[in-house]
Specification:
Number of strands: 8
CATH topology of the largest domain: Rossmann fold
Number of domains: 3
Helix content: 40-55%
Distance between the termini: 66 Å
Radius of gyration: 32 Å
CATH superfamily of the largest domain: P-loop containing nucleotide triphosphate hydrolases
Strand order of the largest sheet: 3-4-2-5-1-6-7-8
Largest sheet: 8 strands, mixed
Number of helices: 24
Length: 557
């Protein structure tokens, strides 16, 4: 029998704005989504809605047509209970296999006049204060609809500030747990005192007991000098003391035992972004403002009863592995790349991406046996990934197993006829075999499917060069250079055409351009093996001067 876990509802509240409440909620929501949890978030800050703005890159604004204001208005003013909450929900899409999409119930389409009109016309008195008012039942029904229809593991609510009907219902009717944010000033402290005093009375809660309260002191400067650490310590103790003294004086049995901190970060003042840390990224640099680990500490507190330690450990291990893969991709040093990827594989032996990346690294250092072994492991884990099949084909081609390679590339094209790499590799195989018409068929497909492919046009130009059809060769190579004036292979092809035509001046000019645009020694030596035209220049003074100028040595490998 499957045990269905209840939805956990957490309300984020602040007495005043500007304390980082919404950004804290957004960071927690995204991290839960990274854990694969289904998350729903609601923007109840109706006069100043902005929760959707935190996910700007992941929401299509045109999709936001209705929200919670429309939902409430239908009941309050039209006596109509909306049938489904889905009609008022928008998707936050991350387009990332590691992050689950989030359901957001926005305040509504705030760019329309209709939104503000509806907000003004909502009859809160009728909802909560008239005889036989149905407001409480309505919002309990809303929560049940969310749980039944959207089936989230977590419902996170961004509450309205101040002491209002909305803030009251989000904390007392809807919430299982609260995050109360404040800054260290009298107005914030006095407001939070009143809120906690009210919440501490069981008769004001709609759950058994009172919601768990997480008190968060935000916008605290980070003091990196040990001799100044006392300032933060004193600030926390002062706020905690003020609140607990007030609770004691009001005869409340509640005591707040802990206060969390979210430090101020000037970087976020200029550009808000997600900044919650991963466990393995906890900074050891005392100069760095620790807001990322502040969010992580709060996340751990909010999830310690619902996310088992083993689940968190597994998550952190996988994320560490992914981070090492990203580090490997960013380095051009193949030795470092292999080191990072081996560490990633140790953490996650089922990462097809890590095996594929290490295969490519071994390929570039010419350890083709290791390259082949690792790409086979990658394909075993993820046999449907055509990119991995392509890498295997390239390795087999380099090992001179061209028939096996050809079969792989042909099988790729049966699945995806537009796969550029397979088209290019088959063109190359047939070019090397002297079957120019067959090669031309594949290269023409490249420019048909990818008309902006400079490489595709150059391959055709080079093919016509080999066929001694120089007018056609020029046309295609110049088209390649029109698309990419710094194409090192196109300038190289142009040099070869001029060499074959006996125009040494243009040969040298284009050869030097190729080097100046970035042609490397290894690439040039690979070309020398295939193109006998260069052998006629090996003892030529001008040719040797150009090679010397760009530190290019001719090798025997």
């Amino acid at each position: 029998m499957q045990i269905i876990k209840p939805m956990k509802t957490i309300t984020f509240y602040s007495y005043k704005g500007g304390v980082g409440r919404t950004l804290a909620l957004a960071n927690i929501a995204k991290r839960l989504a990274e854990f694969g949890k289904k998350v729903c978030i609601i923007d109840f800050d109706l006069e100043a809605p902005g929760l959707h703005k935190k996910f700007d890159r992941n929401i299509n604004k045109k999709d936001i047509k209705t929200g919670i204001v429309d939902y409430i208005y239908e009941f309050s003013n039209n006596n109509k209970l909306p049938e489904s909450i889905r009609d008022y929900t928008t998707k936050i899409k991350f387009h990332n296999k590691n992050i689950k999409d989030i359901d957001i119930i926005t305040a509504g389409n705030i760019s329309s006049k209709e939104y503000w009109k509806k907000l003004t016309l909502i009859n809160w008195g009728k909802l909560f204060y008239e005889k036989n008012s149905q407001g409480v039942a309505f919002f309990i029904d809303l929560k049940q609809k969310i749980e039944k229809e959207l089936k989230p593991d977590f419902l996170l609510i961004d509450s309205r500030t101040g002491i209002t009907n909305i803030s009251g219902l989000t904390m007392t009717i809807l919430a299982d747990e609260l995050v109360l944010l404040l800054t260290k000033n009298e107005e914030n402290i006095e407001g939070i005192k009143l809120i906690i005093e009210t919440l501490s009375k069981p008769e004001n809660s709609f759950i058994e007991g009172i919601p768990k309260i997480n008190l968060v002191l935000s916008r605290i400067p980070y003091f990196s000098e040990p001799k100044e650490k006392y300032k933060e310590f004193n600030a926390k103790n002062y706020v905690l003391g003020e609140i607990n003294n007030h609770l004691k004086e009001s005869n409340s049995a509640l005591t707040i035992k802990k206060i969390f901190v979210i430090h101020s970060d000037p970087e976020l003042e200029l550009n808000e972004r997600f900044k919650i840390a991963y466990e393995h990224n906890k900074t050891k640099n005392i100069e760095e403002i620790p807001i990322a680990t502040d969010y992580l500490t709060l996340f751990d507190e909010l999830t310690n009863d619902v996310l088992p330690k083993k689940e968190k450990e597994k998550f952190n291990t996988l994320r560490k592995s992914e981070q090492l893969i990203e580090q490997a991709k960013k380095t051009s040093d193949n030795a470092k790349k292999i080191k990072f990827l081996n560490e990633a594989i140790e953490l996650n032996s089922k990462s097809s991406e890590a095996y594929a990346e290490i295969s490519i690294a071994y390929y570039f250092i010419k350890d083709y046996d290791e390259a082949q072994e690792n790409i086979n492991k990658s394909i075993k884990i993820n046999p449907l990934k055509l990119d991995y099949q392509h890498v295997k084909g390239v390795i087999l081609k380099r090992l001179n197993k061209k028939d096996e390679a050809k079969k792989i590339f042909e099988n790729i094209l049966k699945i995806d006829e537009k796969f550029n790499g397979a088209l290019n590799q088959l063109g190359s195989i047939y070019t090397n075999n002297g079957n120019y018409q067959k090669a031309l068929k594949y290269y023409l497909k490249i420019i048909e499917y990818y008309p902006q492919s400079s490489e595709g046009f150059n391959s055709i130009g080079n093919l016509y060069r080999l066929m001694k059809e120089y007018d056609k060769a020029f046309n295609y190579v110049y088209k390649a250079l029109e698309l990419n004036p710094r194409n090192i292979y196109a300038t190289g092809t142009l040099a070869e055409i001029y060499a074959e035509l006996g125009n040494h001046r243009e040969f040298y000019k284009n050869l030097e351009l190729s080097f100046s645009f970035g042609m490397k020694e290894e690439e040039f030596n690979h070309i020398l093996k295939k193109e006998p035209i260069y052998q006629t220049f090996f003892n030529d003074k001008k040719f040797l001067e150009i090679l010397d100028k760009y530190n290019i040595k001719i090798t025997d490998e």
